[in-house]
Amino acid sequence: MSINDDMVVQFNYTLRDEKGDVLETNEGHDTIAYLHGHDNMMPGVEKSIAGKEVGEKFSVTLPASETYGERNDNAEQRVSVKHLQGAKVWKPGMSALMSTDQGQREVTIIKVGKFMATVDVNHPLSGRELTFDIELIDARDATAEEIAHGHAHGKGGHQH
Question: Where is the PPIase FKBP-type domain (predicted)?
């Protein structure tokens, strides 16, 4: 079965950096599920999966513009320390989670004081060429409800 728009796709992945070191993997965890053709996945990953068959394994190396985006050198923000999640004591270089209008965002601490911190709001992996090893596990036609909502439901997808 070829992967096309309006299908729920389940896959496993391993993400590697420029040197081939593993940065992330869902190996040993639930598969990732998304609704294909609805901007729910990084553009480069979605493009590489389109037209492939269930059961295929492949690797794709993508530029920053098709994954986490290019780095923005002016992406510093001062925020209240109480808005940072993930640790009790903050030090420069640490990653933190911060709630924004667009949902949770990973930021990097640049400077930290008693009440305020300066953070870099670029994604930690922005500006890098990354390689994804992908294994397509399953695909099915999306339900009318999933298409209307614009995302996959159920295991690995969106839980309502």
Answer: 4-79
Same domain, yes or no: 86 and 11? no
Query: CA 75 to CA 63: how far, in whole Å?
Result: 20
CATH number of the domain that residue 82 is part of: 2.40.10.330
Question: Do 56 and 89 share a domain, yes or no?
Answer: no
Length of the chain: 160
Is residue 20 left, alpha or beta, with left meaning phi > 0 and alpha meaning psi from -120 to 50?
left
- What's the CATH number where 32 sits? 3.10.50.40
Among residues 153, 160, 159, the alpha carbon closest in space to that of 34 is found at 153
List CB contacts of 154: < 8 A, sequence separation 6 or more.
33
pLDDT tens digit string along 36-65?
Answer: 999 999 999 999 999 999 999 999 999 999
Pairing of strands 84-85, 57-62: unpaired
- What's the structural domain count of the chain? 2
Cα diameter, the chain = 56
